[in-house]
Amino acid sequence: MSFIQPIILSSSYQHSLHHRYELNIYRGDCEYPHAPGNKWHKLQHHLIEAKKQKASVIATFGGPFSNHLHAFGSTLKSMPFKAVAVVRGELQPKLTPTLRDMVNNGVELWPSSRSDYRLGVSSDVTQTIDTLYKNVYWIPEGVVVCWAH
Length: 149
Hints:
Layout: E1 4-7, H1 11-16, E2 23-26, H2 28-31, H3 38-52, E3 57-62, H4 67-76, E4 82-88, H5 97-104, E5 108-112, H6 114-117, H7 124-132, E6 136-139
Parallel strand pairs: 3-4, 3-6, 4-5
Antiparallel strand pairs: 1-2
Helix pairs in contact: 4-5
């Protein structure tokens, strides 16, 4: 299925118009199904940068129901990087559907207290991960892309 799809207007509606219009819609969920919509557009730049930096691990942040974490886990499943996610809050014995999918995709989950989580890459948990693994590339929460072109 193409990620650019035409919208077909009914013939009765088209006859009521004095001009002919063609309408196409972008379907981000069809372009890259593992990270639909803007998630792929933001993640792809980080993946390129991680490869340039010869990272062996890519890590990111998110909550237990995070669409970003879900897209991250699904995307990295087929890539040569180890995937690590810092999850806001304590992990519960019964994982959320998002976190279950991440574990099934091979993502290593690290719980973080809310106060430590707010510190981002300066948090205790990220320092522990950086000590445990070398060459960690960190994707900020929300997948902000901030390179000058």
